[in-house]
Amino acid sequence: MLFVLGRSVISWRSIGGLCRATGTMAEALAKIPDVEIDPDGTFKYILLRVKVKDGDAQKYVVRGTKSAEYHNHIFEKVNPALEALGMECKCLGGGKIEHNKEDRKIRVFGESTAFGKADHSVSVEKLKTVFSDYEEKPEDRSSIYARTKRFIPVFGKSQPLTSYNQHISAGRDSWDDHLRILKIITQMFLPHIGLSELEEECFSMILPKVVTMFNRMMKEIMNQVGELSSQNTELCAFLRNILQAMMQVIDALSLCVRHAGSFEDGPCLDAIRSLPTCILKVLRETFQHCKDSEMVYCGRLSLVADLLQGLFKEAYSLQKGLLEVLDRISLDSSASDEEVSDIVTVIHSLLDICSIISNLDIALHANTWKFLIKQSLKYQSLVEEHLHHGDIIKSLSDNLLASFHNSVDMAEQIRQAGLQEAVQSPEYKLFQKTAKMCRFFANSLVHYIKEFKYFLTKKSSCFHQLYLQIISKFPPSLCAPSLPTALAGELNASALVPMDAFLLQLLPLRPFAEVVLQPDIWLSPEHELPHLLLLVNILGQLLSQPEEVMQLWYPGNQFPEDTPRLPLYEAIFIGFRRCYTERKVPVLLPGVMLKGQAQADVTLHQHICVQLCASVAVLPPVYFPVLERCLVDAVLQADTPTALLAADVWCFTARYGTAELCLHHVLLLAQMVKACSTESYQLFHLGLLLKRMVFLMTPSHQLEFVAEFPPSNVENLPVWHHVLLRALSQDVRRRVETEIIGLMQRVLMEWQDGGYKLGQVDKVNTALGSVLAALRGQSPPEEPCLLSAVRMTTQLWSRMSPSQLQTHPVLQHTLTLLLSATTVVVKSIKLETISQALLCLEAVVSQKCPDHLLLAALEFLSSLGKIFFPPDSQSQIRPRLSSLFGVLLADKSWLLHQHALEAFSYFAENTNHEEVISQSLCVEETKTRVVNYLSKTMNSQEDVGSRLQRLKQEKSVIEQHNEKLESKKSGSDKQAADAEAITDSEPSPKRARQETSAEEEYDRHIRAAQSSLKALQALVQSENNPTASPPSWLEAKLQELLTLITEITSVRHTT
C-alpha cells in the first residue's frame, strides 16, 4: 500500500527526557514514539509490541533504518534501550519500507527471514499516525506489474570485467545492480502474481539467470581467493561483498519459495517447474563451497568465517522451505512425462546434495535423506524405472558404513578414555548421535530395498560385502574391538539388529544367492567367519520363506546353463573349513537356552552343529537327498574338523529319523569303507562315522548288518576294523567275536600250511586288524576273546624275524598291529614273548621306519610299566627297555618326542624297575627334557597377538596340506621339499597344565551338582506331560543323595 506523507522523523534521543518527566510507567509507555524510521530510502523495518513489565499496558511501534544489514540488528539496538525504561519488547515480524520524502510516499512490503512477515496493515496504521498529512494513493496490481516487469529482460545481463582492478572498483556496483533488479522483481512484482502465472511470467525467466549469476559469483571467489590475506584489505572486502551478495541471492530465492507455498491449495509442479531445479543447483554450489572452505581459503578462513556460517544457515533455511513446498505437491498416474522427469531430477539432485553435506550437519543430512526416500516411495510407480537405483543404494551403503565405523571408533575412544560411565559427557552424546544416524541409514536401506528390490539385482555383491563389513566388527570376529557392554548394546541396536531385516529382503533375489553361494568365492581372512555366520543366518530364515525361495538356496544350481551355485549345506561346510583360525583360538558364540540350565558360550563347532541340526529337524523331505550328498562330500574331504562336524549332523539325522533310515546309512557307509582299498583320510573319516552310527542301530538291525557284512569273510574285515564291539548288543557282539577269532585262526592255519610265505602276510594283517578292533572295542575284553588273542599274538611273535623286519615293509605293518594287540593283553603275555618283541623293536628302531610303527612301539613300551620282571629275566629285558627309551626320547621329530615323553612318564609312574628310568636318561639333554616335562615346567607364554599371528600362518600350511591330499598329485620337487619342511617343523610348545586350587575344585563340583539338581527339578515339575509320574526308584535315590550330603558336611579336616 502506498501513502503520501510529509513530516519529519521524531528523534529517539528525546525519549530519556520524556520518561524522566512522567510519573508512572504507563505515562512512560505513552511517551515512546510509535514510529522511528529513516527520512528517505529503502530499508528494513520491524514491528514491535512494547509492554510495561508486570503490567497490562502495551502498544505497537515501528522501527526501521538503512544502517541495519539484517532485521535482528534493529531489534538488538532497540530492545536494550526499552528494557532500560522498564518495558518488555517482542518482535512481531519484519519487512521493508520504501520512503520517498520528496514525493511524500511510503510503501510497506516484504518480510523478515529471522522474524517472519509482519502484519503490514498494523504497520501502515502506525505510519499514518505520524505521517497523517501524506495522501493515501493505492496502486493496483496492473501498475505494479507494468512498472516491475520491465526489469525481467535486463536482469542477469552484465559485461565481464577483465582485470582485478576493475573488480575492485566496479565489482560491488555490478553485483548491486543485479541484486537491486532481483529485489525489485521478488519484492514488488512476485507478490502480485497468481499461481497459474508464476512459471511463465517469472520463474522461467529469472531463476535460470539467478543460477548463472550465482555461479559467476562463485567463480569470482575461486579466481581471487588465492591472493587473499589479512594485509590485502581491498580483496578481503571484495570477497566479503560477494559472499554477502550470495546471501542476498539466497534470501531472494527464499521469497520465491515462500510465495509458492503461500497459496492455500498446494502448487502443481507445472506452476513452479523452474523453482526446484534452479534452487537445488544453488544449494549444491553453496554446500560444496562450505564443505571445501578450509581447502579454498586455507589459513585465511577466519577472514570470512562469519559470512560462510551465515551463508550455510541461509541455504539450510532455503532447502527446508523448498522441501516443504515440494512435499505439498501431488502427482497421480496421469502425470506427464515432463512432470515425472522433474521429480526424478529433484531426487537425483538431492542425492547429489546428500553426498556433499554428509559431514556438514547431521540433522540436515538426515532430513534430506528422509525426503529423498519419501519422494521415491510416494511416486514409486511413476519414477521406479527412471531412478538411478544403483547410485542411491551406493550412497546409502556408504553413509551407513561411514556412520557405523565412526560409531565404532568413538566407542573405542570412549573406552580408552574411561568415559563409558559418563553418559552425559559430550563424547558419549556424540557417540549416541552417530549411532542413531547409523540406525537411520540401516533402516532406510532396508526400506528402500523392500520397495525396489527387483531393480537392485546388480548390487547383490555390494549387499554381500556390506553385510560382511558390519558383522566383522562384532564378536565373535577376531577383528572386532573390545567394547563396554553399554556401548556394544547401542551398536548392536543400531547396526546388527537391522541386518536381519536387511537379509530377509535379499533372500528372494537370485543374483544375491549366486553371489553368496558361488563355488570359488574369494574372501579376505577377516570376512570368512562373517560369511559363515551369514550362511547360517540364511539357513535359519529359510523355513519361513515360500517354496521358490527355498528352491533357490537349498539345492544349488540344477541346470548346466545356470550360474554355478552351491547347495546351502555344502557352502556352510566349506565356510566352516575356512575358519581354521577361529576354531583354534577358539571363538565363542551364545549357546542354546536349555530348560533348567543357564545359557553359556559355546565353540564355533557346537554353534554351527546346533544350527544345522535344528535345520535338519524341519527340513522339507524333498531336500533330504541334497542334504545327504552334502554330508557325504563333507565327510570325504580332507579337513578332519569339518568331517567331524558333518559326522555330528549325520548322526543327528540318523537318530532323528527312523530306524530304517539309520540302517540304510550304516549299510551305505560300510560299502564305502569296504571300497577304500588303501589307508587314506577318507577311510579314516568314514571309519569314525561308522563307529558312531552303529551305536544308534536297533539290535535287530545290527543283526541285519552282520548278515550283510559277515566277519567270517576276509573281504568284510576292513568294515569290522571300524566297529566297536561294545556298540553291539550282547548276542550280536558274541557272534561277531566268534567269527573274527575263527577267521583269524583259519588265516593263521593257512599261512602255516603254506609255509609262512610273505605273499600271504597281507591277509594275516587284515585278520589281525579285526582282532585288534575286537580287543579295543570292549573294555576289558571277554575271557574267550582274550585267551584266543593271547594265543594268536604269541604265535605271530614267534614268527617275527628281526632281520626280515628291516627289509620287508609288509612285516613292519604286521609288527605295528602286533605291538598294539600286545599292549591290550600285555598282562597275559609271557616274558619270552615280551623279550622277543623288544628284540624286534631294537632291530627296526635303529633304522628309519614309519612313524605309526614307532607310535605303536611307544604305546607298547609304556604298558610294560605294569609288568614285574623276575630277576632271572631282568638282565635281558631292562637293558633293551633302557636302550629303546633312550633312542626314542632323543628322536628329533617333535611329534615322536612328545609321545615318547608321555610314554616314558606313564612307564615311570607305574614301574617297579627304577633302574630302567635312570639308565634311559644317560644323555644330559634328554634328562633335562624329561625332568622339565615331569615337573611341569612352565614354557614361555605367547601374547594374544603372537598366538593369533601364528595360527594364521598355520592356517596356510594346513590348507596347502589338505589341497595336496585332495589333488592326489605328487607335485614338484620343490613342493615335496616344502611339505617335508612343514612336517618336520615343530609347533609352539604346549602350555603346561595349570594346577587348579582346592577352592576352584570345590566350586566346579558344587556348580555341576546344582545344575543337575535344577534340571531334575524342572523334569519333575514339567507340565508338558502331567500324566507321567516320576519313577518309583527316584525317592530312594534322593535319600541316598541326602545321606551322602550329610556325610560330606560331617567331614572335619585337621591341619
Describe the structure.
This protein is mainly alpha-helical. Helices cover 64% and strands 5% of the residues. It contains 45 helices and 8 strands. A 6-stranded mixed sheet has the order 1-6-5-3-4-2. Strands 7-8 form a two-stranded antiparallel sheet. A hairpin with a 4-residue loop joins strand 5 (87-100) and strand 6. Helix 32 (761-776) packs parallel to helix 35 (809-824), helix 35 packs parallel to helix 37 and helix 36 runs parallel beside helix 38. The longest helix has 29 residues, at 389-417. It is elongated. The model is unreliable at 1-23, 137-151, 158-171, 969-985 and 988-995 (pLDDT under 50). Residues 960-1003 are annotated as: Disordered. Residues 960-977, 987-1003 have a biased composition (Basic and acidic residues). InterPro entries: ARM-type_fold, DUF4487, Janus, Janus_sf. Pfam families: DUF4487, Ocnus. Belongs to the janus family.
Strand order of the largest sheet: 1-6-5-3-4-2
Percent helix, as a range, is 55-70%
Low-confidence stretches: 1-23, 137-151, 158-171, 969-985, 988-995
Shape: elongated
Q: Total helix count? A: 45
- Please give the radius of gyration in angstroms: 46 Å
The major β-sheet equals:
6 strands, mixed
Features:
1055 residues; mainly alpha; 6-stranded mixed beta sheet; two-stranded antiparallel sheet; 8 strands; 64% helix; elongated; disordered N terminus
Structure summary:
The chain is mainly alpha-helical. Helix 9 (274-291) runs parallel beside helix 12 (337-357), helix 26 (640-656) packs parallel to helix 28 (681-695) and helix 36 (831-845) runs parallel beside helix 38.
